[in-house]
Amino acid sequence: MDKWFNPKFEKNYRKYTKRRLNSYSFSFKNFFKKFSVTTWFIIVNVVVFMVAFLFIGILGEHGAEKVFSLVALQPNAFFSGAVWTLFTSMFMHGSFTHLFVNMISLFFIGNFVEKLIGRKRFFWLYILSGLFAGLLFVSLAYFFGASNFGARIFGSPEVFAVGASGAIFALGGLLAILTPKLRVYVFFVIPMQMWVAMIVLLFVLWGVSISVGLPIGNTAHLGGLLVGVGYALYLKKKYRRKTAMIRKYFSR
C-alpha cells in the first residue's frame, strides 16, 4: 500500500536483483528501514521525554522551569529569539499521560498514513505540519492572547506548549479527506467516521479549554489539521484515480 503515490517503480529485473543483494549487507540505511518512520518518531518522543525528566530530577527545584524554557514553545520566548523551540517542542510532552495518549494515537494513525502515502511523504508531512502548528499557536497567542478572554481562545503568550498533537491532527486531517468514512474510536470508545471525528475532537477540546481554562493547544491542533487537509486535497487533485480507489476501499 505504500506505493500508492510513488511514481517510480523498478523497470527491470537487474535493478531489482541488485537492490535485493544490497539489502543483505549491513548499512545504517538498512537498519533505519527496519522500523517504520512512525516507530522512529515514537522512539524519539519517548527518549526526549525520559531525558528531559531525568534532568528535571537532577536539577531539583525549578528544574522543570529550566528544562521547559529550553525545549518548550512559549510565544514570548519565541519572538525574543528562542526559535529552535518550534522544533524541539514537537518531541517533548508535559506528563506521562500526555505522552501515552499522543503516542498511542500516533502509533495507530501514523502507521496507517505512512502505508498510504509512503515513508518520505509521511516524514515531511509530520515535520512540516508540526512546525506550522507551532507557528500558528505562537502567532495567535502572542498577538491576541494577552487578555483573559484572548488567552482562553488562543492561549496565553506566557504559557509553555509541548506535544506531538499538532502533527497528529495533520494526519487525521489527511485521513478525513482521503478516507472520510473510515470508522475510528474517538477518545478510544466512541465510533465515528473519520471526517466527523476530526471535527468533534477539535471543537470538543476547544470547548473544554475555554470553559474550564485548561491550557490545550487548540490553535496548534487547528494548524496541523489545516496542513493535513490541504495536503490531502493536493493528493486528491494530482492522483484522482488512486485517491478514489482509496476512498472506495476504506468506505466498506
SSE arrangement:
Blueprint: H1 13-22, H2 28-33, H3 37-59, H4 63-71, H5 75-78, H6 85-88, H7 96-117, H8 119-144, H9 148-154, H10 165-178, E1 183-186, E2 190-193, H11 194-212, H12 218-238, H13 240-249
Antiparallel strand pairs: 1-2
Helix pairs in contact: 3-4, 3-7, 7-8, 7-10, 8-10, 8-12, 10-11, 10-12, 11-12, 12-13
Give a quick rundown of the structure:
By secondary structure, the protein is mainly α. Helices cover 69% and strands 3% of the residues.
Name the descriptors.
13 helices; mainly alpha; 2 strands; Rhomboid-like fold; two-stranded antiparallel ribbon; 252 residues
Report on this model:
This protein has 252 residues and is mainly α. The radius of gyration is 20 Å and the shape is globular. The chain is 69% helix and 3% strand. A hairpin with a 3-residue loop joins β1 and β2. Strands 1-2 form a two-stranded antiparallel ribbon. α7 crosses α8 and α8 packs antiparallel against α12. The protein has one domain: Rhomboid-like fold, CATH 1.20.1540.
